[in-house]
Amino acid sequence: MAQSSKGKLNFRCPSCFxxxxxxxxxxxxxxxxYYCLRCCFHGDEKQVVALNEMARYRYGRLKMRVADFGExxxxxxxxxxKRGEQ
Length: 86
Prior knowledge:
The chain is of the alpha+beta class. 21% of the residues lie in helices and 20% in strands. It has helices at residues 14-17, 45-58; strands at residues 26-28, 33-35, 42-43, 64-68, 77-80. The strands form 2 sheets. Strands 1-2-3 form a 3-stranded antiparallel β-sheet. It has a two-stranded antiparallel ribbon with strand order 4-5. A hairpin with an 8-residue loop joins strand 4 and strand 5. The two termini are 31 Å apart.
């Protein structure tokens, strides 16, 4: 999405992003907080960054595929998924 009159950085709304909606947040310089036009979320930069990191953690293995499930008590091994391969 294009950045128009938003704040210093282009943050995604964490509340909308958890519902698979990609919406940029706007910055209110008087209140020094970010807000979303689509939902009722608002918060300071520290809170927005923390929630975006949580989303990044949840979707961190999105492009990885399980190569081997292994034995009991052994973590599975992952490989990067290459586009166009099955």
